[in-house]
């Protein structure tokens, strides 16, 4: 589940923090969203899975296949844990290719364990308490499963703009076919498609620089690994349903050409 383009928008705020050490092997970050009011939210793909408590239910949210549009409830706050790219299948307990829904109730996957966690979460008065419940839930899950360290390492290597799937496979001591099998199981798409998502996510991290006129779309496109600005435009429309200029405008309101 991707992060918002802006960490503060109107009365809404998004903050990340370091997860507890007991879950750091599979959790990239913990986060809190101060919602303020009910509103629609675009969630951009990043190849990760988030475990999200929104005050109503606990869900597993994945966005590797494209932008997800969600309605934020009018809860005072929401909390989540972002699983590391490559850890989703092992933690959730099924091949990510089987997870067709983009927001799946966790009780559909973990039954009573998830329902008990939801009961505890409903009693939490502050985000910190809810975060501890989520971390305890994942720690309990880790006693039953073996994370796929190979896929986590592969996803980390594939983030590099110059990475090649065949070279990553060789460095990890598996065939290209074996790498594809691991990545599809843990992420939901193959290495090539994951690279496209990770490259797009690198672009999203540079949107602020364009919005603040510190860089241009053409320069950012080259920096993050696109062939040119036109290539960036095609990928943005495919993965976000919007042009690069539209994403920059949504950050700042300034008129930026596509």
TrEMBL record:
SMART domains: HTH_ARAC (SM00342). PROSITE patterns: HTH_ARAC_FAMILY_2 (PS01124). Residues 148-250 form the HTH araC/xylS-type domain. Pfam families: DUF6597, HTH_18. It comes from the Bacteria. Keywords: DNA-binding, Transcription, Transcription regulation. PANTHER family: BLL1074 PROTEIN, HTH-TYPE TRANSCRIPTIONAL ACTIVATOR RHAS-RELATED. This is Helix-turn-helix domain-containing protein.
């Amino acid at each position: 589940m991707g992060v918002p383009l802006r960490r503060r928008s109107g009365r809404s705020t998004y903050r990340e923090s370091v997860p507890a050490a007991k879950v750091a092997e599979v959790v990239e970050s913990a986060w809190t969203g101060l919602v303020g009011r009910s509103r629609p939210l675009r969630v951009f793909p990043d190849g990760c899975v988030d475990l999200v408590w929104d005050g109503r239910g606990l869900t597993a949210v994945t966005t590797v296949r494209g932008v997800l549009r969600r309605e934020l409830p009018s809860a005072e706050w929401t909390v989540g844990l972002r699983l590391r790219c490559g850890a989703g299948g092992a933690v959730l307990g099924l091949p990510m290719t089987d997870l067709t829904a983009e927001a799946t109730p966790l009780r559909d996957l973990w039954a009573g364990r998830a329902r008990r966690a939801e009961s505890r979460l409903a009693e939490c008065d502050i985000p910190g308490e809810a975060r501890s419940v989520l971390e305890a839930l994942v720690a309990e899950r880790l006693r039953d499963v073996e994370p796929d360290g190979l896929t986590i390492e592969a996803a980390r290597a594939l983030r590099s703009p110059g990475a090649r799937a065949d070279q990553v496979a060789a460095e990890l001591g598996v065939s290209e076919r074996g790498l594809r099998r691991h990545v599809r199981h843990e992420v939901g798409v193959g290495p090539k498609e994951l690279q496209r998502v990770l490259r797009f996510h690198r672009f999203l991290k540079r949107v602020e620089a364009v919005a603040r006129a510190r860089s241009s779309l053409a320069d950012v496109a080259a920096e993050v690994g696109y062939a040119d600005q036109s290539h960036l435009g095609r990928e943005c429309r495919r993965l976000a349903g919007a042009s690069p200029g539209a994403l920059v405008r949504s950050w700042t309101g300034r008129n930026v050409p596509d």
